[in-house]
Amino acid sequence: MRPLTGDRVRAVLAIAGRDVRTTYLSAFGVGCTAAFAGLAGVVLVVALRADQARLDTWFAPLYVALGLLACLLTTRSFAEEERSGGLELLLTAPVTPWQVVLGKLLGTALVVAVVGLSTAACPVLVAHLGHPDLGPIITGYIGVGVMGLAFVAVGLAVSASTSNPLVAAAGSAAVLLALWLSGVVGGGLRGLPQFVLEYVSPTQHVTGFLRGTLSVGDLTYFASLLVAGVGGAVVVLGERR
Amino acid sequence: MRFEAVTRRFGSVTAIDAVSFELRPGEVVGLLGPNGAGKTTTMRVLSGYLQPDAGRVVVGDADIATDPVAARRLIGYLPESASPSRELTPRSYLAFSARLWGLRGGARKQAVSTALRHAGLDAVADQRIRSLSKGYRQRVGLAQALVHDPAVLVLDEPTSGLDPGQVTETRKLIARLGRQRTVILSSHLLSEVSALCRRVLIIDRGKVVADSDIASLTGSGGGRRLEVRVAADPSVVARALEGVVGVVSAVAGPDRVIVRGNGDDLADRVAAAVTGGDFGLVELRVEKESLEDAYLRLVQR
Question: What pTM does this model have?
Answer without folding.
Answer: 0.82
